[in-house]
């Protein structure tokens, strides 16, 4: 095996894990802001748990944590990808066609990163991977 291929085979699952963990932490932060007020974001003051934004917060908090841990990665990533597609088309697309103009870039990026995680799996350093190897 060529040295370059060995390097790629060694580091691909590790970098996939880094992508998963960083994405999960950033997504988790949206949930903690909505549900726990940490960090404080004024627009989430008085957020009702049984509202669309409250449901989004639950999915962001719980889904983000599961993605960070690498637990049930594929089904959770699939659900979160769909959630972000819905968020984009409900909240951003009606404002303007282009994501740069309608401020929907993050929703689109999360949607496709979660879609990638659904297909690629959790990578290294995950509960899913540890469970699979036992």
* H-E order: HHHHHH
Shape: globular
The structural class is: mainly alpha
Integer count of domains: 1
Helix content: over 70%
Total E-strand runs: 0
Uncertain segments: none
Summarize model confidence as the mean pLDDT: 95
> For the terminal residues, how far apart are their CA atoms?
27 Å
Structure description:
This protein has 134 residues and is mainly α. The protein has one domain (3-133). It is 73% helix and 0% strand. The chain contains 6 helices and no strands. The protein has helices at 3-35, 52-69, 73-92, 99-102, 105-120, 127-133. Helix 2 packs antiparallel against helix 3 (73-92) and helix 3 (73-92) packs antiparallel against helix 5 (105-120). The radius of gyration is 17 Å and the shape is globular. The mean pLDDT is 95.
């Amino acid at each position: 095996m060529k040295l370059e291929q060995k390097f790629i085979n060694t580091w691909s699952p590790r970098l996939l894990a880094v992508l998963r963990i960083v994405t999960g932490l950033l997504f988790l932060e949206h949930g903690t802001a909505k549900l726990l007020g940490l960090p404080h974001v004024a627009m989430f003051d008085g957020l009702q748990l049984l509202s669309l934004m409250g449901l989004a917060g639950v999915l962001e908090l719980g889904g983000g944590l599961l993605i960070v841990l690498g637990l049930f990665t594929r089904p959770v990533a699939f659900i979160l990808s769909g959630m972000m597609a819905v968020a984009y088309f409900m909240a951003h697309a009606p404002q303007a066609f282009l994501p740069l103009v309608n401020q929907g870039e993050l929703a689109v990026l999360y949607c496709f990163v979660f879609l990638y995680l659904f297909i690629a799996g959790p990578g290294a350093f995950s509960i899913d991977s540890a469970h699979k190897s036992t």
